[in-house]
Amino acid sequence: MTETITLDGPADWTDIAAAANxxxxxxxxxxxxxxxxxxxxxxxxxxxxxxxxxxxxxxxxLCDVIIDRENQQALSRNxxxxxxxxxxxxxxxxxxRAVMAAQIANFAHGYSGVxxxxxxxxxxxxxxxxxxxxxxRGSVGYLTHAASIGLVLIGRGTVNDGREIVPGAEAxxxxxxxxxxxxxxxxxxxxxxxxxxxxxxxxxxxRTQSLFAWADAAAALxxxxxxxxxxxxxxxPLALRHSPGLQAxxxxxxxxxxxxxxxxxxxxxxxxxxxxxxxxxxxxGAARDAFEHVAEVVNRELASVTDNPAVxxxxxxxxxxxxxxxxxxxxxxxxxxxxxxxxxxxxxxERRIDRLVNPLVSGLPxxxxxxxxxxxxxxIAQYTAAALSAENRRLAAPASLDGGITSALxxxxxxxxTPAAFKALAIVDNLERILAIELLAAAQxxxxxxxxxxxAKRTETLYRRIRTAVPHYxxxxxxxEDFEHMRHVIQEGTP
Length: 495
What we know:
Elements: E1 4-7, H1 13-20, E2 24-27, H2 29-48, H3 72-83, E3 87-90, H4 93-107, H5 116-127, E4 131-132, E5 135-137, H6 143-153, E6 158-160, E7 165-167, H7 168-174, H8 186-191, H9 195-226, H10 235-238, H11 244-257, H12 261-266, H13 275-278, H14 280-302, E8 310-313, E9 318-321, H15 329-357, H16 359-362, H17 379-395, H18 417-447, H19 457-469, H20 479-492
Parallel strand pairs: 1-2
Antiparallel strand pairs: 3-5, 4-6, 6-7, 8-9
Helix pairs in contact: 1-4, 1-9, 3-6, 4-5, 4-9, 9-11, 9-14, 9-15, 9-18, 11-14, 14-15, 15-17, 15-18, 17-18, 18-20
């Protein structure tokens, strides 16, 4: 049964991630009432002729151009049409759903002033799986992505229904809706704020959380194959380093490796293990600590109003506030931080893969090939991991410092939160692929161990799960097919 999330108070990043992955959204009565009240404030502003950015003025560098009442609907429509100038391949369905969910959550605060009918149309599209096609490139912040959603509401643009591309007007017809005639301020609200970056950030957090668990599992398998010190992850010594993430990773490793006959057999053969094995709690743990900070920032963003202008007061005393709440500086910095943390976890995974395949340090057949020379085994798989890790280093350069000037000096500092979130997702994808390679290499290493010593209980269980999906490799098939099978195992659940 599909999960339903009711938006009442501020959403949590896990709510947005759940909606991205197929959960339904609905508004509470209180949220709906907040939206209705905010709309009444906008109508009062229009009736009284009180100047409000994007309500009865132009936008950007045209903010001092007064728009008379009969042209305010045209302004809203024109904003959506002119801002829909993104290019490139569309966002994936999950990414687009995340953006829509964050947009709806922002409107539910009741400070944007859109009509409740507009929010309900967005909900209807999301819950029916009629997801707007959103070009992925061409935004320094949020405008072009969000405009592609607004297009569908006015009967333009296209949606993906999960099978085919459908015109926006047809998508509305399927829902029994007519294209919306946008009212004052609605055009600006539909393209404004940080929902694009926030939605993508929530999805990045969800994928990262799962992959960090798999990274710990992969490290445990590799350590059992290569390690020698059975007490490297003992609770007492690890407690000397203050880090919640480190302690959590240490506990996971102890659980995976508990009573390992393999580690007992190799104990004492080295004074200490190499850092890519010994420092797993420290590197993975630091990344987890960074994750928690980023999650806090994203939740603060979801609790915030990010529309500009925001409206407040009552119809009798309407207020409009031109602030910079649509600027996503906090999100840009947070997503840059997450990108670096995920890249670090990927980098240490690639180093562990190298140790598994390198006969100079592994004690295993060269490149995990059963017939070295005739077979290359995992030699080039490590190349692939190294290439992805190098790509991560390039992608991890901060987007939040890119800067730029737009709109004739009116918008003369840019924080690039959406590009920061987008490239964080790219690094997350690379981590998933690198971990798939490490998990397969570790399974292959078990197959080639010179002694038939038993594994720990949890590593044995995970080994069998891997082998159920992907058999032993003998240079008998394209290796990238195995990587994809392993990625599907990762995506199906926790280790």
